[in-house]
Amino acid sequence: MAKKDYYESLGINKNASKDEIKKAFRKAAQEHHPDKQGGNAEKFKELNEAYSVLSDDQKRAQYDQFGRAGANMGGGGFGGQGGFGGFNWSDMAGGTQGGEGFEFDLGDIFGDMFGGGGRRSRSQKGADITVDLKLTFAEAIFGATKSITITKNSACSHCKGTGGEPGTRQTTCKTCSGKGSVKEIRRTILGQMATTKTCETCHGKGTIPEKSCSTCHGKGIERKTETIEVKVPASIEDGEMLRVTGRGEAMSGGASGDLYIRLHVAAHSHFKKVENNIEMDLNLKLSEALLGATKTIDTLDGTLDVKIPAGIQFGEVLRVKYKTIFIYLHVKINLPKKLSKDEHKLVEELKEKGL
Question: Residue 161 — left, alpha, or beta (φ > 0 → left; ψ -120 to 50 → alpha)?
Fold first, then answer.
């Protein structure tokens, strides 16, 4: 299968400026870099080949006139040596070419992909925790303060997360020389690469205590059981998730993760939640619907008297104020299945009167 045109590989036109070529390469390289999940090593090599030619005025002119063969005539082209030819990583981000391929700081070149430059400390965060919490119907309607007990990594209670005995002086970390990060050399299919990672000795802080904490042995964290009070807002829905920032797993040298609480609301025997209010069926006798009445209904925490107007119709809805919400009462009229002789006679009389 024929190889792609260099301009097509970078997604640019033949009149693209050097700056446009560089920007196109940077964007495409970030997307296809083999160190990135879903990266493509072959595509990455193709991009480098295209950039090494099009970023060099002489090679670009030869390529425009003779194609790939012309771009490699100078002896320094990509195809002639099987390497990256005229592509200069240091020109992109201050890296240096090594004798066995190339060496560069992925953080410097692909800062956007890795969340910041390699010389800048990337923020570390502890793991998030997800727990389930059951609520009564009333708690979901009006809100509540609930206690959750979990066992997790927390800041050491003795050293308050510093990792050193209280009062101990902090000294410069010898592993990273106070930088908080170290370079790690790795061999890949593209050669030798250097990546920057957080220093495991000081956990990115750049300093370590002269004397380690006697409780956590310098880790700054300890495994313990905590009881956390959570304020559940009113009108919560079943299945909703609450996020409590910073109450997840603690991490040495970084921020704590978050606590996510999945809420489960118990069903009620006769109430249903409708947005921020509740509803229920109101069963009336025929006489109560015709003549009106005062009905006592059960609420979430007691009883409530409701005045029924005379002549109310089946299916009508009464709205009753209850604390900070409304109760919507759906009127149902219970008709007797059997009538006594007297009742039958009364109904006949009503019928004769047009009722």
Answer: left
DSSP code per residue over 259-323 = EEEEEEEPP-SS-EEETTEEEEEEEEEHHHHHH-EEEEEE-SSSEEEEEEPTTPPTT-EEEEEET
Give the pairing type, strands 303-308 and 293-298. Answer: antiparallel
Phi, psi of 48 (to 5 degrees): -65, -40
At 42-85, the pLDDT tens digits run 888 888 888 888 988 888 888 887 776 655 544 444 443 334 44
**Which residues make beta-bridge pairs with 146?**
230
Give CA–CA dist 98/105, Å, rounded. Answer: 12
- CA dihedral 74→80→83→85, nearest 10 degrees, is 10
Per residue in 310-326, pLDDT (tens digit) is 999 999 999 999 999 99
For residues 292 and 308, what is the distance between their CA atoms, to the nearest angstrom?
A: 5
Closest CA to 92 of 83, 81, 104: 104
The 10s digit of each residue's pLDDT in 98-122 is 333 333 444 444 444 444 444 344 4
pTM of the model: 0.54
d(CA 54, CA 166) in angstroms, rounded, equals 60
The residues near 273 (Cβ < 8 Å, ≥ 6 apart) are 137, 140, 141, 235, 237, 265
Q: How many CA atoms lie within 13 A of 86 on its CB side?
A: 18
State how far the Cα of 247 lies from the Cα of 190, in Å rounded to an integer: 42
